Amino acid sequence: MSPEDNELRTTTFELTKLAKEPKVQVVKGQQPDTDGQPQYTEPKVEFNEETGKAVITIQTNGWVDLSITGLEFVYDENAQKIEDEPIKSERTNLARGKNVSFSEDASEASRRDDAVDGNKTNPDNYSDPGRNNGGAQWLQVDLGGLHHVEEVNLYRYWNGTRKYHDTVVLLSPDSSFDPTKTLVLWNGNRDADREWPASLSGTQGETHKLPKGEKEEYIETKDGKNMKVYGEGVSWLDTDTKTPLPKDGEHFDAGYIRVYMNGSTEGNTNHVVELEVMGETGDVVIKDEEAPTVPGNLRVVSPKASEAEIRFLPSVDNTGVEKYKVSWSKGGEQVGFREVTQTALILDPLEAGSEYTVQVKAVDRYDNESEAAEVSFTAMDIQVSADVASGQYDSAQQVTLTAGEGAEIYYTLDGSQPFEKNKEVSESAKKYEGPITVEKNTILRAAARKDGVEYGTGSWYYLIGAQSQDNWETPKAPSDVRIDSKSSSSANISWAAEEPGCTYRVYANGKMVWEGKEMNQTIQELTPLTTYQVYVTAVNERGIESLRSETVEFVTMAQ
């Protein structure tokens, strides 16, 4: 049996060679899922003082950021505790001696590493990223891992009043320089329409545009230019909400630095005497290479001719799932793609009668992608219909059910749902094989399924024989209330009932939003990303209203 959407999964990891028990707490966790359920519990720590091992356990169906403090480690194989002063990290130039690359290498082989050799006193000791013959150039340094960077010092050839044009300095966690992860440390770009080289030397034709900057050109001196990440850093994109902008005294996690320039007031050449990237040698962030788990229980919910909702269980990742990539294809060709953070999505527009294949991949904050979860379905309106309408009849009725070609029909005669929430056939449901004989008061419910996908449920009531009009008893409350599908502005709700002939009322956040005979209904005019609490009541022919059903809570989707 597949787990429900709100099931919490247990994750356990260990820390070893500890001198004392660490303190572990959740700093930030994924928001409640699309059904409003919490996505994590508080972590538990079991510490063995003799072995120095701490076992940390947390239950989650999303991602969490954990803070682990109070770490004290032992330092030798005999688990002897450290008694002297803790080891101190040394603040250093992280770029020194590291690998340098250029958009166009104009330096002699013996001089290409001059920009990271530690010599910043000789202006003639420089690397040349290339001439700006028809385009600007850049120099890039691989810092050899992800480090906590505090500031950058840029030294270029100084002579008189020389100024370099269009200076741009970027820090990025990786070599992609993705705008949503890149910190713009300095931006003196004068022309937002300029095409800058985007790739390493040898890859022609790949360019990108940088935003226009506000930094003024400055005269180069032997003192260079100091750029603090918390004083200068801005986002590449105006709408970027992912790139962390350091505050006063904070750092930026970077693995690469790139310096753009476009010649100077003295000519079209570019010169970098020394590029210093200052940080702590001990502040090294280990890049995660572990992919998230595959999104679970991917399914299509009540597809229609023009749209369909998909749902899936959250993936689990050691650093946290950042987003999900959802793509859908028709005839082997991709026709739709979206990136989402929630575990439900409406696919639209769809073409009626076409078969679609949906793939969902989880992506963590280091861009590791999971394997794809996959499901296929046909976009069509498959509705179960009955040849005998709901109502009161003097004698038994023969009811014939029909649905779309190739669809299987399952039905119940006690008002319950034909399918469980996990989409398995319910215990009380039967597969439709032929006309159904109704000899007593009955609620008939039926749903169609094709290729494993459940389509809409229909319901009918039949009152057989003479009926008393003196029913002063309170009807039983509806049960098994479900949110079958939802969007940013609507939700389809269904429920089970035992007493035929009743009218049903649907309440959302205490207000009645629908009244009728059917046992499922779509409520409209809802607000995106809003929590709703829904319950249903039954009203008999005397107007007596039942107690409330259980309350179901859900959150509408983003617009």
What are the main properties of this structure?
559 residues, mainly beta, Jelly Rolls, Immunoglobulin-like, 5 domains, nine-stranded antiparallel beta sheet, five-stranded mixed beta sheet, 1% helix, disordered N terminus
Could you provide a short overview of the structure?
This protein is mainly β. 1% of the residues lie in helices and 43% in strands.
What would you note in describing this structure?
The chain has one helix at residues 229-232; strands at residues 9-15, 23-29, 44-48, 53-60, 64-69, 91-93, 99-102, 137-156, 168-172, 183-187, 196-197, 207-208, 225-228, 234-235, 252-261, 272-285, 296-301, 308-313, 321-330, 333-340, 344-347, 355-364, 373-378, 385-386, 391-393, 397-399, 401-402, 408-412, 430-431, 436-438, 442-450, 453-464, 479-486, 491-496, 503-508, 511-516, 520-523, 531-539, 552-555. It folds into five domains: 9-69, no CATH class; 92-281, Sandwich (Jelly Rolls); 299-378, Immunoglobulin-like (Sandwich), CATH 2.60.40.10; 384-464, Immunoglobulin-like, CATH 2.60.40; 479-556, Sandwich (Immunoglobulin-like). The protein starts with 8 loop residues before the first strand and ends with a strand. It is 1% helix and 43% strand. It is mainly β and 559 residues long. Strands 6, 7, 8, 9, 10, 13, 14, 15 and 16 form a nine-stranded antiparallel beta sheet that branches. The relative contact order is 0.10. It is elongated and about 110 Å long. The chain contains one helix and 39 strands.
